[in-house]
Design a protein that fits this description.
The structure holds two protein chains of two kinds. Chain A has nine helices and 21 strands. Chain A is of the alpha/beta class. Chain A has two domains: about 270 residues, no CATH class; about 55 residues, no CATH class. Chain A starts with 10 loop residues before the first helix and ends in a 5-residue tail after the last helix. By secondary structure, chain B is α/β, with parallel strands linked by helices. In chain B, helix 2 packs across helix 3 and helix 5 packs parallel to helix 6. The two termini of chain B are about 25 Å apart. The interface between A and B is medium-sized, with 25 and 28 residues.
């Protein structure tokens, strides 16, 4: 009789091993030491999620027990050439593009890296120069509440962008963080980590994308921290286009200062399993957040968005619009939580979650929640679940448009409220096309 | 015959609506089908266009010799059948120009013709818009969404002008139109009259026929054509109402 070793991944054992990623040249990044240890200590004390944890009830992580995921401890991956990945690049942009391959900055794939006055662009791994104290001091300070994966990211973060825009500086060119993942026989577990700091009156746009070469299995466990100073403005576009066998987890933490503006467009189209936690905290009065998302859950795909918005101070407004499209045996989880603290008078928040079911075998678990402790607020939430409209389908077909294409067009139309936020950009064309291609594949 | 309908019987939700309808429309002719509410006018229009939920239990319908009832709605459109809706459907998030171009090129593909590129298409659609006096900004909006009643109907006639169908069925195109909009829409339709194009105008009121003059008028009652004549029949209906004919229809 042969002994079969358990193939699963033990997160606690990974932490206990004490092996942390090194930068280029295999040198540990010294200034990260304390953060890693804090993350490791936290991770070893946090439970591995199962169905008994309310926040994970509909999002089982069975994939971890089925394969041995290996944290990527060394980079960069120089073997990847521009010609291997240029189909993932957006056409005709002058974006400042940072490319990460399996969690490590790939210098040869980056473009338009120009250091403008007042804009500090560094990488965790150090290959773009030493980060300033402002950046070092902020790292790991925005993220507050965490689950075990977020803690694990702090322990195992490999590389990422550190962005600092000085007071009253506007960076006009979008900064694109393009993650390219490559599945390996033993699926890699990558830990990209980004920090975006806008000082008072600064303004910038960040595009965060997750793509793959090939259709291999891997697990991305990313964490992004955003700190917005008084009167600053950030447009943040996220597009998850992972491979069909991938697992994707990302944890986004945003802190809004007085009268700052944050606009998020978050699109999840890929992966076999994904979970995105978005945690937005109002820390200064008069701030506004606009959070929009489109989530696709195709056959056997599970995509989850956990949104939690904390109105801790008065006079802030937020709009949350998340739309889901489900097909086959797809599963979609949406948890939208808005907390209004006792002092947060004159809060104005509107949460909407609309879902389009293309199949009767799909499942959506949606839970909007408002928890309000102030007495002078304007808050509402609404959820809908519906099917494609037969009148609309017939109208399109009566105009000569074949059924499959008519369905695609109506799905694109449904997504347009979210996609429309970035209309006119190359990413808009790309995600519209991707969405259509992933639904009712034609020709 | 451009349209040949023989003994057509159809039901909706198990209820028999068309009870043996015969209609022959020659090339280049304009026929009006009039009748009281619930007589089956809209059902006839939808059955010909191929809408789901209308079950044909007997009879036949062919266009230019091709059996329509065997075809999907999109195939009928590519063949040259066009239905102008009584209530044009709003399509939120679907850009009007994009929709028109998709539809135009889908019909061309359906006929084995090459597609028109974006620049040529824009030139073509601008030309057609002038014909129906449609505001150019309506091209940038989602299809029919937030359009006024008149704008929706103009958008229908714009499509008729664009697709250049062999057979156009106008379902209650006058409903919800004020007199000015009615005139523009009718002018658009009249400009599209041609020896190669047949038009079937389905309407409850005679009013529209003052603007679009039919060659033949039929009265539909109780699921059958109960009377046919020339345009003077429409005038007679306006004077006498439908009552006297429905009774005849029921009795027949």
């Amino acid at each position: 009789m042969s002994v079969v070793e358990a193939a699963g991944t033990d997160l606690h054992r990974i932490v206990a091993s004490g092996k942390w990623p090194a930068a280029a040249g295999k040198v540990p990044i010294e200034w990260l030491g304390a953060i890693r240890e804090r993350g490791a200590a936290l991770a070893s004390n946090l439970p591995i999620p199962d169905r008994k944890l309310e926040a994970w009830r509909y999002t089982p992580i069975g994939f971890l027990t089925k394969a041995l995921y290996q944290p990527v401890l060394e980079g960069p991956f120089d073997a990847v050439q521009v010609s291997d990945v240029d189909e993932l690049f957006l056409d005709g942009t002058d974006n400042i593009r940072l490319v990460f391959v399996n969690g490590y900055l790939a210098t040869a794939l980056c473009s338009n890296i120009v250091h403008a006055d007042g804009v500090e662009l560094r990488s965790l791994g150090g290959s773009m120069g030493e980060p300033s104290d402002e950046l070092r001091d902020k790292l790991d300070q925005v993220a507050d509440k965490r689950h075990v994966f977020a803690a694990l990211n702090s322990a195992l973060m490999s590389d990422g962008a550190l962005i600092h825009v000085s007071a009253n500086v506007t960076e006009k060119r979008p900064i694109e963080l393009l993650h390219i993942s490559l599945g390996l026989e033993q699926p890699p577990m990558c830990h990209p980590r980004h920090l975006i700091v806008l000082e008072s009156g600064a303004s910038a746009e960040v595009i965060e994308r997750y793509c793959a070469i090939g259709d291999g299995a891997y697990f991305n466990n990313a964490l992004i921290e955003v700190s917005l100073g008084a009167g600053s403005r950030l447009r943040h576009v996220r597009s998850q286009e992972e491979s069909a066998k991938a697992q994707h987890l990302s944890d986004l933490h945003v802190r809004l200062g007085t009268e700052s503006r944050y606009a998020l467009t978050s699109v999840a189209l890929g992966s076999a399993w994904s979970r995105t936690d978005i945690r937005v905290k109002f820390a200064g009065e008069g701030a506004h957040a606009e959070l929009d998302g489109l989530i696709l859950a195709r056959d056997r795909q599970l995509n989850d968005v956990h949104l939690s918005v904390h109105h801790d101070v008065p006079n802030c407004t937020s709009r949350e619009t998340f739309k889901g499209i489900l097909d086959g045996k797809g599963k979609l989880v949406f948890d939208g939580y808005i907390h209004v603290a006792q002092d947060a008078q004159k809060t104005d928040a509107v949460l909407a979650n609309d879902n389009l079911m293309l199949s009767r075998s799909a499942e959506v678990d949606t839970k909007p929640q408002l928890e309000i402790y102030a007495d002078d607020v304007k808050c509402s939430h609404g959820t809908t679940v519906g099917e494609l409209d037969q009148d609309m389908l017939f109208y399109l077909r009566s105009r000569g448009i074949p059924l499959a294409r008519a369905r695609q067009m109506l799905c694109q139309g449904f997504a347009e409220e979210v996609f429309g936020r970035i209309v006119g950009t190359p990413l808009y064309d790309r995600i519209r096309r991707l969405l259509a291609a992933r639904l009712y594949e034609t020709e | 015959m451009m349209l040949s309908v023989k003994n057509l019987q159809a039901e909706v939700d198990g209820k028999e609506i068309l009870k043996g309808l015969d209609l022959e429309v020659g090339a280049g002719e304009v026929h009006a089908i009039m009748g009281p509410n619930g007589s089956g006018k809209s059902t006839l229009a939808h059955v010909l266009a191929g809408r789901d939920g209308y079950e044909v239990t007997q009879g036949s319908a062919s266009m230019d010799g091709t059996d329509l009832l065997e075809l999907e709605p999109e195939e009928r459109a590519a063949l040259g059948l066009f239905l102008a809706f009584q209530y044009p459907v709003e399509l939120p998030g679907v850009n009007n120009t994009h929709f028109l171009k998709e539809a135009y090129n889908a019909q061309r593909r359906g006929r084995g013709e090459s597609e028109l590129d974006s620049v040529s298409f824009l030139r073509l659609i601008r030309e057609k818009m002038e014909m129906v006096s449609m505001k150019p900004e309506l091209l940038k909006r989602p299809v029919n969404a937030g359009f006024s009643g008149g704008e929706k109907k103009r958008n229908e006639i714009l499509q008729m002008a664009l697709f250049e169908p062999k057979l156009a069925i106008l379902d209650e195109t006058d409903s919800g139109l004020d007199i000015d909009a009615l005139r523009t829409v009718s002018d658009g339709v009249n400009a599209l009259r041609s020896p190669a194009r047949s038009i079937v105008v389905v309407t409850h009121y005679q009013r529209l026929l003052d603007y679009i003059e039919p060659d033949h008028v039929h009265v539909l009652a109780g699921g059958r054509i109960v009377r046919s004549g020339d345009k003077t029949l429409a005038k007679e209906l306006e004077r006498r109402g439908y009552g006297w004919l429905s009774e005849q229809g029921e009795a027949a």
